[in-house]
Design goal:
alpha/beta; Spore Coat Polysaccharide Biosynthesis Protein SpsA, Chain A; about 220 residues; two-stranded antiparallel sheet
């Protein structure tokens, strides 16, 4: 197992209720990566990081929800997902156990993110002498994802609106925001179009490096 003590009482929220509108009929979160639907792969990485895992889906009968069958994840339907990313974040955080210390927002369409990257973010939060917000960056320092919010931000996250995600919460907490670099472009690679998927597959023959320990879940 790949569990990390530093991830205890931290939730990983994977927003997966969006329309995948730029994929021209395909669902980016169901694209196969090393034989698994991407959303299932991301959920397994979060599980093996040792976090409480929550995934928002359009509804409980959606193929994305079915892709998570058998995994110990909290699935939350978002009936107003068409209103933007904030709907997923607002609803997801509202259903989290309020005893948690923090929630990490982990976009489902970022296949380069590894379980070890999630652990790195969690450990940075644990190492901080104050309840910091932790934002991943690329190796060269460009801000990206995942982003971790401590518990005192939960109320603000539950009040989000529009399609800007949690940017306003980040801006309001700039004084305690810490940036943590992840390898290469892990924090930036998100795949929203068929062309982006084709290019990524051409450059990425395999991403199974941290999946050797999770065969028990399938």
């Amino acid at each position: 197992m790949c569990y990390a003590v530093g991830m205890q009482n931290i939730a990983i929220l994977i927003p997966a209720a969006g329309a995948s509108s730029r994929m021209r009929g395909r669902d980016k979160l169901l694209e196969l990566v090393d034989g698994l639907p991407l959303l299932r792969l991301q959920a397994k990485r979060a599980i093996f990081a040792g976090a409480h895992v929550c995934v928002t889906v359009p509804d409980h009968d959606h193929p994305r929800a079915q892709a998570l069958e058998g995994l110990p994840v909290q699935r939350i339907a978002v009936p107003d997902a068409d209103l933007g990313m904030s709907s997923s974040l607002r609803r997801g955080v509202s259903f989290l156990p309020q005893t948690l210390d923090a929630v990490m927002i982990f976009p489902g369409d970022m296949p380069d993110i590894q379980a070890t990257d999630l652990i790195t973010i969690g450990e940075a939060f644990r190492a901080s002498p104050f309840p910091a917000l932790i934002q991943a960056t690329s190796e060269d320092g460009t801000p990206g994802h995942p982003v971790l919010f401590p518990r005192d931000c939960f109320a603000a996250l539950r009040q989000l609106s529009g399609d800007q995600g949690a940017r306003d919460v980040l801006r309001a907490n700039q004084n305690r925001l810490r940036h943590i670099a992840l390898p290469a472009q892990h924090a930036l690679t998100d795949l929203d179009t068929p062309e982006a998927w084709a290019q990524w597959r051409q450059n990425t023959p395999s991403v199974a490096s941290d999946m050797l320990c999770d065969s028990a879940l399938d």
